[in-house]
């Protein structure tokens, strides 16, 4: 620790000197702007206040809030103290928020006014929490400004390998897992993204993905790292996004379908100039990607990654190999292996594994899961792919034990949705899986067998699920059938998908 370490707080200090009076962050809702030097001053004041409140190295700090300057300051102050940020997906249900917070056992939680009532309702289930605070100066908890003190901040020596953030992944086997990402993971990802985009201090990033998401947080840090401007949106609105792209000359953003398509539709109506948008990275369909490139003259970058790989594993320009996920990142050794962990031949499908500084620190307090994931010295993603002769990765789905649905960039495990559906008194059996969806790229479908003499409509079941877990996890499609095909007494998932998983879901 020390001579060879570099933390996120070290980056904040470095940029305060390199880009002193350049604007680092702009709140699009209020127009509030801070320079890189002012941002460091704010982070120091908050870190000093948290230090006085007893926050120390290794403590977790929960955040339940939408994108804001205050949220980004909390990340910076935690980095300065060696504390770990625990951002929570506010789209989750109350019970899911309670689980994620309880799992991380935070000493302190910051909350938006919008979510204060919900967090108050689960306060009794969070025995680790010593203090609650608002992300503004309104609300039932301690005001944000009151935590920022003028006492000089006595810095903490933080190792690059120390944990910085815990991001909970989708619920596999019935429970989410907290992925612990280090300072080094985040900064290495930032350098990769800078390399990919050719980012500089003349760029402008539209910060529209939520900071609880690995892509949202890492893109904000990536722009900050380069000395670029982060234009923050607390809530995505396509028309507002188009207006900001034109007025602020936004040059980069991260896209999950249907974000980019909605922006292009809004631009077509408004006629605003969005040709400054020179680079977009993410996941989308070829029609939207090519439409974006025709409209702006910009470049779309395909990628493959996970929270566990610090957002990135492969990346590349769409035009270099349309449909692929690009080539392995410069500091990532990607291998495709069979079930015995033997490498597969070029052109053959195997599990995507990664070795290198982008691999996360492990799942929070889940040692058995970590041993399985990191077996034989590699991170096993649970995803499948194949390499072509030129080294481009082609995504080929997921291993059966890690079946996952990704509507609009969110992760949903079928087992979690199936468990809720089976709680309905009219449902005897069910299987949930992903199907093509024109808006979300991948939609959620439930095929159900009802109990004898029971009746249930599609809408009733969808509303039932949406009332018990996050609404983005509810099925968009429901089909009732007389029976489900079986193999050895268990639902034959492949057969169900073949029967009911076509384009016309």
UniProtKB/TrEMBL annotation:
Name the CDD domains on file: ACLS-CaiC
InterPro entries the UniProt entry points to: AMP-bd_C, AMP-bd_C_sf, AMP-dep_synth/lig_dom, ANL_N_sf
Name the SUPFAM superfamilies on file: Acetyl-CoA synthetase-like (SSF56801)
- Domain AMP-dependent synthetase/ligase, by residue range, is 13-364
* Residue ranges constituting the AMP-binding enzyme C-terminal domain according to the UniProt record: 416-487
| Coiled-coil regions listed in the entry | none
State the Gene Ontology BP annotations: fatty acid metabolic process
Q: Name one GO molecular function term.
A: medium-chain fatty acid-CoA ligase activity
The entry's protein name is: Acyl-CoA synthetase
Say which species the protein is native to.
Desulfosarcina alkanivorans
């Amino acid at each position: 620790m020390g001579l060879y370490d570099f933390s996120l707080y070290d980056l904040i200090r470095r940029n305060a000197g390199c880009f002193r009076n350049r604007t680092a962050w702009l709140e699009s809702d209020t127009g509030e702007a801070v320079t890189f030097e002012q941002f460091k001053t704010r982070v120091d004041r908050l870190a000093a206040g948290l230090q006085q409140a007893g926050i120390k190295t290794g403590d977790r700090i929960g955040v339940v809030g939408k994108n804001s300057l205050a949220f980004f300051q909390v990340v910076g102050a935690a980095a300065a103290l060696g504390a770990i940020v625990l951002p929570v997906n506010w789209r989750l249900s109350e019970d899911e928020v309670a689980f994620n917070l309880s799992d991380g056992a935070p000493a302190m939680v910051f909350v938006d006014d919008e979510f204060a009532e919900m967090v108050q309702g689960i306060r009794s289930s969070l025995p680790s929490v010593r203090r609650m605070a608002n992300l503004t100066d309104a609300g039932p908890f301690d005001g944000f400004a009151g935590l920022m003190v003028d006492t000089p901040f006595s810095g903490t020596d933080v190792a690059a390998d120390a944990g910085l953030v815990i991001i909970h992944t989708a619920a596999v086997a019935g429970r989410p897992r907290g992925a612990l990402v280090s300072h080094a993971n985040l900064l290495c990802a930032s350098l990769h993204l800078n390399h990919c985009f050719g980012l500089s201090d003349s760029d402008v990033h539209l910060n529209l993905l939520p900071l609880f998401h690995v892509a949202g947080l890492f893109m904000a840090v990536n722009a900050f790292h380069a000395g670029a401007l982060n234009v923050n949106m607390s809530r995505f609105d396509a028309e507002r996004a188009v207006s900001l792209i034109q007025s602020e000359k936004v040059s980069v953003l991260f896209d999950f379908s249907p974000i980019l398509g909605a922006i292009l539709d809004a631009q077509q109506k408004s006629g605003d100039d969005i040709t400054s948008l020179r680079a977009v990275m993410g996941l989308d369909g070829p029609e939207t990607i090519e439409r974006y490139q025709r409209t702006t003259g910009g470049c779309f970058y395909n990628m493959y990654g996970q929270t566990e790989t610090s957002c990135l594993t492969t990346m590349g320009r769409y035009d270099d190999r349309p449909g692929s996920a690009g080539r392995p990142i410069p500091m990532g050794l990607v291998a495709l292996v069979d079930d015995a962990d033997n490498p597969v031949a070029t052109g053959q499908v195997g599990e995507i594994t990664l070795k290198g500084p982008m691999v996360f620190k492990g799942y929070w307090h889940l040692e058995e899961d970590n041993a399985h994931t990191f077996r034989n010295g590699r991170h096993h993603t649970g995803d499948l792919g194949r390499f072509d002769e030129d080294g481009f990765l082609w995504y080929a789905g997921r291993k059966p034990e890690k079946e996952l649905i990704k509507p609009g960039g969110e992760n949903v495990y079928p087992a979690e949705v199936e468990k809720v559906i089976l709680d309905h008194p009219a449902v005897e059996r069910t299987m949930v899986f992903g199907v093509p969806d024109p808006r979300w790229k991948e939609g959620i479908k439930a095929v159900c067998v009802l109990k004898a003499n029971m009746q249930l409509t599609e809408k009733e079941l969808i509303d039932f699920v949406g009332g018990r877990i996050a609404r983005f996890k509810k099925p968009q499609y429901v089909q009732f059938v007389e029976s489900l095909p079986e193999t050895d007494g268990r639902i034959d998932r492949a057969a169900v998908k073949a029967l009911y998983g076509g384009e016309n879901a």
